[in-house]
Design brief:
heterodimer; A: 120 residues; mainly alpha; globular; B: 160 residues; two-stranded antiparallel ribbon
């Protein structure tokens, strides 16, 4: 795979100020069947550290920390742990633990929150 | 009666045999000489004289040896010329085959070169070092980035 071009485009979308970039990443990146692409997209979205981007990575089943691929999920969790400002992420995790319909998603959010509280 | 010793008798027998052998050799030599003299280009091969006019009638051969006329000389030179012509034709035919083979090789090489040129023509030479620079991509509109990403992902999925 010629990942350099894809990596650069995803990185550019992650750094882009336009909110439309989140939609593009969600639509093309997180739904991509290739693990590597989903991994890059998760990183880009979490680094944005905006409510919309973090919500996509924490709340949605099969995306971000809830990805079926352990590698992608672990990468997303690592990226969350590496955030300097974790306030927005913890807020979303709390909301997920309290209000999400899926127990599996709640459990994942709880575990990630525990890790984040330990790391900070 | 003279008494003959066995040694003397054997010497005499040997001398007789020697004389007979010398005579035989002389006869053979003279025959060969005569055969070679009839044809100065005659070649001996394992004792057999090969003559140029070996397929000709003996009558004509004898006449020729006796007095070669101008007509016969012309005929002989004609034969030599035709032999030389046949040799030249052979040389030309081999030269022709070589030339044809060389031409075919050149043609094949040219076709292969043409195919390579076509391949090169189809290959895009992209200087995308600058095109896919992150800071440059960041300045582009999201719709354009979306198209680029979709194309790249399509290419990646096709590869796999």
């Amino acid at each position: 795979m010629n990942s350099r071009k894809v990596k650069n485009i995803i990185e550019a979308l992650g750094k882009h100020k336009d909110d439309e970039s989140i939609k593009v990443l969600n639509e093309l990146g997180t739904n991509c069947p290739i693990d590597e692409i989903r991994e890059l997209t998760s990183k880009a979205l979490i680094r944005k550290n905006t409510h919309e981007a973090l919500e996509l990575m924490i709340v949605n089943k099969g995306k971000g920390i809830n990805d079926l691929s352990a590698r992608v999920a672990m990468c997303a969790i690592n990226e969350l742990l590496a955030l300097k400002d974790k306030q927005e992420a913890i807020k979303i995790l709390d909301d997920t633990i309290n209000m999400h319909s899926e127990k599996e998603v709640q459990d994942t959010a709880r575990s990630v929150k525990a890790l984040m509280s330990f790391s900070s | 009666m003279q008494k003959i010793s066995p040694l003397r008798s054997s010497i005499e027998a040997f001398n007789k045999f020697k004389a007979m052998r010398a005579n035989k050799n002389e006869k053979a030599q003279t025959q060969n000489d005569a055969a070679v003299q009839t044809n100065p280009f005659g070649i001996t091969f394992k004792g057999t004289v090969i003559q140029m006019d070996v397929f000709e009638k003996t009558q004509n051969n004898s006449e020729k040896t006796m007095s070669p006329s101008l007509k016969e000389r012309l005929q002989n030179s004609g034969k030599l010329l035709s032999a030389a012509w046949v040799g030249t034709l052979n040389k030309f035919s081999s030269f022709k085959t070589n030339v044809i083979a060389f031409g075919n090789k050149i043609k094949d090489n040219a076709i292969a070169f043409g195919n390579k040129l076509k391949e090169l023509g189809n290959t895009k030479v992209e200087l995308d070092v600058f095109k896919y620079n992150v800071s440059r991509l960041q300045k582009q509109p999201v719709s354009e980035l979306r198209t680029m990403l979709a194309n790249e992902l399509q290419g990646v999925s096709n590869e796999q």
